[in-house]
Amino acid sequence: MTAFMLKKDLLLLADPEKAKLLLRFFKTGKGEYGEGDQFIGVTVPNQRRVAKEYKDLPLSEILKLLNSPIHEHRLTALFILVHQYQKGDEVHKKVIYDFYVAHRDRVNNWDLVDSSAHKIMGDYLLDRDRSVLYDFAHSEVLWDRRIAIISCFAFLSRNEFKDTLALSKILLKDDHDLIHKAVGWLLREVGKKDLSLLLSFLDEHATEMPRTMLRYAIEKLDESKRQFYLKKKF
């Protein structure tokens, strides 16, 4: 099995009309966050099916997919990488983690990050030093910052909230809407598990939070609490 064969299989599933829609949906225009990204119009379920067929693809071939300008090639590569990580022993998990970090510049759209960061980086760091996430949170690269906060989903599964809250504070005044959404999303998930922690964070930071971040964070609160924090902010 090779990357070339996988690309051919994806091309058989391509839909040019869907590709046009995806170009707009993922903001690929000049100056937009996905500038230059290319699509062939393959659905995510079909990409997952192809990824399953190529689940044993060597890392050298996965890298060829990640280096492709075609979005579906990169996302399918990440589906394979996540599978190999989850099925690997501790030695192979380390190999996959290092590979992911080394080539994270190709994890360069929000769905690519959201499909992989917590499943590889987050999981690998569960019982390890997490300082790399703080380095990423201070990065000038948008996708590094999103990887940092999305990775925290893995910690929430063990009711560990410290890093989510700390990284949220670092990203509180980030200037990008995709970070506002991600941080608000993670804070909302914290609230589902420990409402008091979310409310404490909001009491301290609601007035500083961008509108989108706050709205995402309070989405599951009862109406009276939602209105309280919205009025506090606005």
Secondary structure blueprint with pairings:
Layout: H1 3-12, H2 16-25, H3 44-53, H4 59-66, H5 71-87, H6 90-102, H7 110-114, H8 117-124, H9 131-137, H10 142-150, H11 153-156, H12 162-170, H13 177-193, H14 195-205, H15 211-217, H16 223-233
Helix pairs in contact: 3-5, 4-5, 5-6, 9-10, 10-13, 12-13, 13-14, 13-15
Write structural notes for this entry.
There is one protein chain. 67% of the residues lie in helices and 0% in strands. The protein is built from 16 helices and no strands. α4 (59-66) packs antiparallel against α5 (71-87), α12 (162-170) packs antiparallel against α13 and α13 (177-193) packs across α14 (195-205). The chain starts with a helix and ends with a helix.
Record field, number of beta strands: 0
Oligomer state equals: single chain
Structural class: mainly alpha
Strand content: under 5%
Shape category: globular
- Report mean pLDDT, rounded to a whole number: 95
Number of helices: 16
Computed Rg: 19 Å
Low-confidence stretches: none
Roughly how much helix do the residues carry, as a percent range? 55-70%
Elements, N to C (H/E): HHHHHHHHHHHHHHHH
The major β-sheet equals:
none
* Measured distance between first and last alpha carbons: 56 Å
